[in-house]
Design brief:
This protein is mainly α. 29% of the residues lie in helices and 7% in strands. It has a two-stranded antiparallel sheet. Strands 3-4 form a two-stranded antiparallel sheet. Strand 3 and strand 4 form a beta hairpin. Helix 2 crosses helix 3.
Length: 175
C-alpha cells in the first residue's frame, strides 16, 4: 500500500510527515547509509511508525494548533511562530505557513524512522534494577535517570516547533 504523505492539506488519511523519496535524499545528503539498506516497504513502515511516535511524544508540546479537526496528523498547524526572524522581536511575529509541513519536522520523522527500523522506539518498561550482582560483577543503576529512551537529536531538530519553554502549559509572552 502506497504511503500517504501529509504535505500541508490536512489529510484525514495521512500516514507520514515525509515521503520515502525525501527521506532518501535527506539520508544521502547527511551520509547515513543505514537507511539505504532498507527496502521501500520497510522504509514506508518505519515512516508510519515514526509518525505515530511523534504524535504521541510531541502532541502536547507543539506550538500552535492543528488546522482542521479531521486531519490525521499533528501537522499542518496554525500559529507556529518563527522565533529567529527579524520580525519575531518586533511588534509583528512571523509564523510558519499553515498549509505545509516544515522541512525540519519531516527530517525529525526520518530520523525516528531510521532509529525505529533498528529498535523499538517505545519499548515496554519494566521496573528498574537498583543493584544486581552476577559473579564478581555488580551493577547499580541511577534511580534518578529516565527509564525510557530520549532521542535528543530529534528533540533538538524539533525545538523551533515546540511551545516556548518546551512545557505543555507554557505560552510565549509578547510585549
Amino acid at each position: 500500500m502506497a504511503l500517504i504523505v501529509e504535505a500541508g492539506a490536512g489529510l484525514a488519511n495521512a500516514e507520514s510527515l515525509i515521503s520515502v523519496t525525501d527521506a532518501d535524499t535527506y539520508f544521502t545528503n547527511i551520509g547515513n547509509s543505514a537507511w539505504g539498506v532498507l527496502t521501500t516497504t520497510q522504509k514506508e513502515q518505519s515512516l508510519r511508525v515514526a509518525t505515530l511516535y511523534m504524535g504521541g511524544a510531541y502532541r502536547d508540546k507543539w506550538a500552535g494548533t492543528r488546522t482542521t479537526v479531521t486531519q490525521a496528523l499533528d501537522w499542518p498547524r496554525y500559529m507556529v511562530p518563527i522565533r529567529d526572524t527579524p520580525t519575531a522581536f518586533g511588534s509583528a511575529i512571523a509564523f510558519y505557513p499553515a498549509n505545509s509541513v516544515p522541512l525540519l519536522v519531516g527530517y525529525a520523522c526520518a530520523e525516528l524512522a531510521v532509529r525505529g527500523s533498528a529498535a523499538d522506539l517505545a519499548p515496554d518498561l519494566s521496573r528498574g534494577i537498583k543493584s544486581e550482582t552476577i559473579g564478581p560483577l555488580t551493577v547499580e543503576y541511577d534511580l534518578g535517570s529516565a527509564q525510557f529512551t530520549r532521542f535528543r537529536y530529534v528533540d533538538l531538530i524539533l525545538r523551533p516547533f515546540l511551545k516556548a519553554g518546551g512545557g505543555a502549559s507554557t505560552v510565549p509572552l509578547t510585549r
